[in-house]
Amino acid sequence: MNLANRITLARIFLVPIVTIFLLVKLNIEPLTIGSYSISYNQVFALLLFIIAASTDGLDGYIARKRKIVTNLGKLLDPLADKLLMAAVLIALVQMEKLGAWVAIIIISREWAVTGLRQVALLEGAVLAASKWGKWKTAVQITMIIVLLLNNFPFNFIDLRIDWVVIWASVLITVYSGIDYFVKNKNLIPVSD
């Protein structure tokens, strides 16, 4: 197994660890700065999430640079991304930091696009990520970081950046999904 695939597998193995830190409460006093408070397990989850999310681009870069792109990597990379995002979104819903409807929209878009990619593979085509898909990922990661930071440092000036990034994430997720299907409508069978 090559280095790029090992990095992707590491991202998959980080998913349950991040989730455990988010959902299991530790009996440790929270980190407090003035009126701001955050639990240590949330800090650990945030750091692990940032590490896992940053490996997404790293594994692809290494695979292309070293010319070690494999079918296993093509399968595992998007799977790792979806597992990480879905797990953290569901945990945020459980923690009451995110509405379930937001998680449903984001996760549904991911699986709908995955389905379209599977149809493309059956037709012998590979659909590359669009620029909107890349922006969508960046905005979703930003949203998760802001939510895990409890809107820090914007809470000190009473600025609800968390709501801004949630809505930005929903809008770009929906737009990128529509864009993906419109650009690849020739792959969608309208009749048998």
Give helix and strand order, one letter per element, not per position.
HEEHHHHH
What is the CATH H-level superfamily?
CDP-alcohol phosphotransferase transmembrane (TM) domain
What class would the helix/strand composition place it in?
Answer: mainly alpha
Number of domains as seen in the coordinates:
1
Pathway: Phospholipid metabolism; phosphatidylglycerol biosynthesis; phosphatidylglycerol from CDP-diacylglycerol: step 1/2; Lipid metabolism
Catalytic activity: a CDP-1,2-diacyl-sn-glycerol + sn-glycerol 3-phosphate = a 1,2-diacyl-sn-glycero-3-phospho-(1'-sn-glycero-3'-phosphate) + CMP + H(+)
Function: This protein catalyzes the committed step to the synthesis of the acidic phospholipids.
Transmembrane segments: 12-28, 40-62, 83-107, 137-157, 164-182
Care to describe what's here?
The chain is mainly α. The protein has one domain (3-187): CDP-alcohol phosphotransferase transmembrane (TM) domain (Four Helix Bundle (Hemerythrin (Met), subunit A), Up-down Bundle), CATH 1.20.120.1760. It is 70% helix and 3% strand. It has six helices and two strands; from the N terminus they run H-E-E-H-H-H-H-H. It has helices at residues 3-23, 40-65, 71-94, 100-122, 131-148, 161-183; strands spanning 31-33, 36-38. The chain has a two-stranded antiparallel sheet with strand order 1-2. A hairpin with a 2-residue loop joins strand 1 and strand 2 (36-38). The longest helix has 26 residues, at 40-65. The protein is globular. The model has no long low-confidence stretch (mean pLDDT 88). Its EC number is 2.7.8.5. It comes from Cohnella endophytica. It is found in: Cell membrane. GO terms for molecular function: CDP-diacylglycerol-glycerol-3-phosphate 3-phosphatidyltransferase activity. It catalyses: a CDP-1,2-diacyl-sn-glycerol + sn-glycerol 3-phosphate = a 1,2-diacyl-sn-glycero-3-phospho-(1'-sn-glycero-3'-phosphate) + CMP + H(+).
